[in-house]
Predict the structure.
Amino acid sequence: MQLASPRNLTIATAVVLVAVGGGLAIVAPHGVSITPTLVNLGLLVAGVGLGSAGLFALTTPNDDPHRWGNVLRSTCVIVAIVAAGGGIRAGLDLQQGAQISDDLWRDAPELGPGAVVLRANLVNARVVAPNRPHDPTDITSWDRLERTQRTRTFYVNTNSQGYRGGEWTTPAPGFRIACVGDSVTFGWGMTDNNAWPAILGRVLEEDVLNMGIPAGETEMLTRLVEQKIPTINADIVLF
């Protein structure tokens, strides 16, 4: 059996293509679609294959009895190399897709047009967000664009009402403080226990609720207070 025969090389190339597709499906992070990657890789391989076949056909003498066999062999080798190399690069790119954040939000029309709040019962929802620069040289350095692309990963848990922290009991077990605010109150970029309402609760040893909503605007948060506070028995509202 001749491994370099056109037929065997065609079969081997097909196996490489299938293996690349299967490999991408395996390495793709959960929730990341490989369809766009396969389409782009397929277009690349097809373009390179057609271009190579045309080039080899033009450069092979017409009177060569093995002309088309040689064209097919050479094209298969090029296609296999491009598919393998492109598959490796595509796999690395897909791994970067693992940094896609989980969906935290649901629409909340009751709080006004375009309002969104956190989904209820989130468990270790992963968030990858830009890490804002804190070093003055980050905005003047020659590599400032790379520096400001830093990311921070943190995890969010919510209760059945869609807020950070444990479940709320009604009536309140004792003195209760409700903290309402935007990303600062929510604790954007921090773990649940490092948001300031959680710290306040530990310091005071009181029941402190975190009602922070990232990017919450004043009007929306005001509606939130009007709708939610009467039902949770809060003694103090920190807005």
Q: What stands out?
A: Residues 186 and 212 are 4 Å apart (CA to CA).
